[in-house]
Amino acid sequence: MTRKAHEIWIGAYGAKDGVGITRVELLPDTGELIKTAEYGGIENASFLRMNRDGTRLYAVSETDTYDNDNEKEEGGQLASFPVDAESRKLGPGLYYPTHGNHPCHLSLTPTEDWLAVSNYNGASVMMYPIGHDKRPGPPAIRFRHTGSGPNADRQEAPHPHSVYFGSEGHYLFVPDLGMDKIMVYTRGPEAHEWSAHDAVSLDPGAGPRHMAFHPSGKIAFVLNELNSTVTRLSYEEPGKLVRFESITTLPSSFEGENTCAEIAVSPDGRFVYASNRGHDSIAIFRIDELTGELHASGHISTRGKTPRNFALTSDGEWLIAANQDSSSVVLFRVDRQSGLPVYAGVDLPISKPVCVLIR
């Protein structure tokens, strides 16, 4: 029996009149990656999200200015595209200002009634209510960050790098690279009521970038871009992260420059993966099933330069890595026992890919 293809969307850096979003299919029976569509109309589509029923694709346009009726406006944009249920083609996009420069990440609540966007160079997080038609409404809430860190080149100001809603949908977690903190916000009983709840400090100069929750919902892992570490946090109490140990993403023999980019937990909750830009690898960690502690299990080359993003299929069988500076998307088959991704012999050329979304 032929298994169903995995639907994959690749976001990329590039001009508005170039290819910003590519649709790809992964055929699990043969291990083939096939381009099925390419779309322009969006500049620097650096992060993508899709709603649960697959009818709408959301993307950030990571810019510091955009065209609005032939007038230059400051900041970036949130884009919303309808997706045809049968053909899976994107329809015309709707665009909304993010009121901050270089939006780089977005997330939906589990109930899909709110969407959050982080403005990396805007020191802010914008929140948009989502209507019954799945379209975002005008931005209703803005959280502004203040602070800095010891790295003068990268932490001169706040840099909210990503946004994640907890599984209960009542808390929003925002790793801020510039502040060395994870900011936590909570929703109130009123429709548009969100407020500050907590802040978790990381090591000075760590530069928290992305995070991932364990399937149990009791553990979270944050990837620190600047010092190339993963920090384990417990999440026993709703809205409350408690920090534990950090572990390096690099082998002891590596002496070059490196920054980290993406982190993911395997669907079975046994492994954590993190990407290294410089070492150009995926680091693999085994999760202790009793304590939740991480144990280094090795590295695999991404067979390209600057793996900004990667993603795992929902069954944990495949890992797809996007190498930004070698313009390649590379397929790996994951060994279920060891958790080690093994090169599947497939490299797909895509210009400056920076996001992998697997539906």
TrEMBL record:
Signal peptide limits: none
Stored Pfam families: Lactonase
InterPro entries noted in UniProt: Cycloisomerase_2 (IPR050282), Haem_d1_sf (IPR011048), Lactonase_7-beta_prop (IPR019405), WD40/YVTN_repeat-like_dom_sf (IPR015943)
Highest taxon of the lineage: Bacteria
Gene3D superfamilies: YVTN repeat-like/Quinoprotein amine dehydrogenase
GO MF, one example: 6-phosphogluconolactonase activity
Family: Belongs to the cycloisomerase 2 family.
The protein, known as: Lactonase family protein
UniProt lineage: Bacteria, Bacillati, Bacillota, Bacilli, Bacillales
